[in-house]
Amino acid sequence: MTQPQLNFIIVDDDESSLLICKMVVKKYLNPNSIDTFPSAKDALSFIKSVYDENPKEFATILFLDVNMPVVSGWDFLKEFEKFKNEIKSQIKIYMLTSSIDNNDIALSKKTGLVSGYLVKPLSKEKILDVFG
Predict the structure, then answer these.
(1) Where is 126: in which H helix or E strand?
(2) One-character DSSP codes across 80-114
(3) Which of the ends of the chain has fewer CB neighbours closer than 10 A, N or C?
(4) Domains and CATH numbers, the chain
(5) Angle at CA 131, nearest 5°, toward 129 and 132?
């Protein structure tokens, strides 16, 4: 069964986690594009400029780490929430983190912006659970 094409944005300060996630997405999904950012601030700037000016033809999945220096995943969500609805409606956010803290899981559900919470590393099984 062929998966619909999707754009992916991966935000994680850990370079090896970025690489693993990118490899798993490429291997098991049919990505139209994959953009990776070790900085949440850079990812926010990218989304604001690219998605505001050029709505995407395909839906976008964003994998977001929780614990990052300078701008955390939670800080990212606070800024993302301020974006225009036209931008937010194009992107589904999944927390992809090493945190198994129940408070983090509960907080991700409360935001209304997070579609799912996945514990690293991303794997074939986790991809299939989320995307069928």
Answers:
(1) helix 124-131
(2) HHTS-HHHHTTEEEEEEES---HHHHHHHHHSS-E
(3) N
(4) 7-131 (3.40.50.2300)
(5) 65
> Sheet harboring 31-37: ordered strands across?
31-37, 6-11, 60-64, 91-97, 114-119
User: pTM for the full model?
Assistant: 0.91
On the question of a cis peptide bond just before residue 4, with omega within 30 degrees of 0, the verdict is no
Determine the average pLDDT of the residues in 63-70.
92
Q: What is the pLDDT of residues 70-89, one digit of tens each?
A: 999 999 999 999 999 989 99
DSSP strands (E only) in the chain: 6-11, 31-37, 60-64, 91-97, 114-119
